[in-house]
Amino acid sequence: MPEWIKVGTLSDIPRLGARTVDTHQGQVAVFRTNEDEVFALFNKCPHKGGPLSEGIVSGKVVVCPLHNWTIDLVSGEATAPDEGCTRPVAARLVEGEIYLSLPPLPEGEGRGEGELSGHRNHLPLTRPSATLSLKGEGI
Ligand code: FES
What we know:
With 139 residues, the protein is mainly β. The chain contains one helix and nine strands; from the N terminus they run E-E-E-E-E-E-E-E-E-H.
């Protein structure tokens, strides 16, 4: 049974924008569309790992900021002629609050199904640019 963890509220994410959440499986980008739908993908472009959270959201796709591949927010698939897929993360919006459930890890890897790091009840959404500046400082 999937575990749903609250990561923030719809108002934490600007329309056509994204925020990130750090999990034990890697960083997840949470996107908000112009229609106030919420989708989540691991924050790595299937091309060369670009930060999708820094991309431009249009409809139900995000355009990677590095080389402009277009990634479907629902499936994580790159749009043809490009090929590749970043793993989607189940996202749910309940009365303005955003919940995520990670996909199960491949067998033999890491911890239990759907578990989001050591924080049991809540993980904070952060701005993508804040995350990048922290990396730049060697943290
Ligand atoms: S890393 Fe995303 S298009 Fe190249």
